[in-house]
């Protein structure tokens, strides 16, 4: 018998719920929510009816339900469902819509199903950050970018890219990050520092530098971490000296950027007969 797993988490930073269903066979009768639902199918095949329209949805398909959208779904061919979604209350969506578009309104999204959408990967990344209780900066950046694309491409009010370059503000952000990378940095603080909204800050910075503010911060931290590791500083000490919340977060981020774990990188610079050596890595 298939084991069903249902995980629910509330993120106090973003003020949203994250649901994960694994091995679900349940049939959901026609119903609606008073909040937005943005979800995607990880595994499985379902018959979905929303607002009297019928869809067959599969792995990689993204679904969006507006508040009050009636919908029902059931499994197809007896297959179980693995599904992730975030639930966003209207007052929270209104705040982010104002942040992104400059308009005080509640967006209406269409269509209901985005087949094989690249945004499923973005939603999965955000969902994992929420379930793993990662720091607010990275989560909020991922959430803003996801909502911005959904509002721009699939809502009733499009959102143009910022036309101004904000060069001086971007330089201020870079200088601040490079001087305070060991500290906890948030989008809220960078927004207050420059006078830009979080959305315009994020979009303008990414367009100008080719990298998001959070990724820029992570790169600065890793560059400093490399120098400390080269000097023989233990990875656990390097993690806290470069602003990472814990050694696991540091190790994962380091390997993602460098391709080696911190210990593997440090061993390259351990001295044997006064010379550096290479590190052979078996993947």
TrEMBL record:
It comes from the Bacteria. Residues 171-268 form the HTH araC/xylS-type domain. GO terms for molecular function: DNA-binding transcription factor activity; sequence-specific DNA binding. Keywords: DNA-binding, Transcription, Transcription regulation. SUPFAM superfamilies: Homeodomain-like (SSF46689), Regulatory protein AraC (SSF51215). InterPro entries: AraC-bd (IPR003313), AraC_XylS_family_regulators (IPR050204), Homeodomain-like_sf (IPR009057), HTH-like (IPR037923), HTH_AraC (IPR018060), RmlC-like_jellyroll (IPR014710), Tscrpt_reg_AraC-type_HTH (IPR020449). Pfam families: AraC_binding (PF02311), HTH_18 (PF12833). This is AraC family transcriptional regulator. It comes from Paenibacillus rhizophilus.
């Amino acid at each position: 018998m298939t084991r069903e797993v249902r995980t629910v988490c509330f993120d106090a930073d973003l003020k949203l719920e994250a649901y994960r269903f694994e091995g679900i066979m349940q049939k959901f009768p026609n119903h609606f929510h008073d909040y937005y639902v943005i979800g995607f199918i990880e595994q499985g095949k379902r018959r979905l009816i929303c607002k009297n329209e019928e869809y067959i949805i599969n792995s990689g398909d993204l679904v969006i339900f507006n508040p009050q959208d009636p919908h029902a779904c059931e499994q197809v061919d007896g297959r179980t469902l693995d599904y992730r979604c975030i639930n966003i209350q209207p007052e929270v969506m209104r705040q982010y819509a104002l942040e992104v578009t400059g308009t005080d309104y509640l967006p209406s999204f269409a269509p209901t199903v985005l087949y094989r959408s690249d945004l499923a990967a973005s939603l999965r990344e955000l969902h994992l950050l929420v379930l793993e209780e990662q720091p607010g900066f990275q989560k909020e950046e991922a959430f803003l970018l996801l909502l911005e694309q959904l509002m721009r491409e699939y809502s009733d009010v499009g959102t143009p890219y910022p036309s101004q370059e904000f060069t001086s503000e971007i330089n201020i952000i870079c200088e601040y990050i490079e001087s305070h990378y060991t500290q906890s940095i948030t989008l809220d603080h960078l927004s207050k520092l420059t006078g830009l909204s979080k959305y315009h800050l994020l979009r303008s910075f990414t367009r100008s530098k080719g990298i998001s503010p959070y990724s820029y911060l992570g790169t600065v931290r890793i560059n400093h971490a490399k120098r400390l590791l080269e000097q023989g500083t233990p990875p656990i000490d390097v993690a806290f000296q470069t602003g990472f919340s814990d050694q696991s977060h540091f190790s994962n981020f380091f390997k993602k950027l460098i391709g080696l774990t911190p210990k593997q990188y440090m061993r390259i610079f351990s001295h044997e007969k006064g010379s550096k050596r290479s590190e052979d890595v078996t993947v």
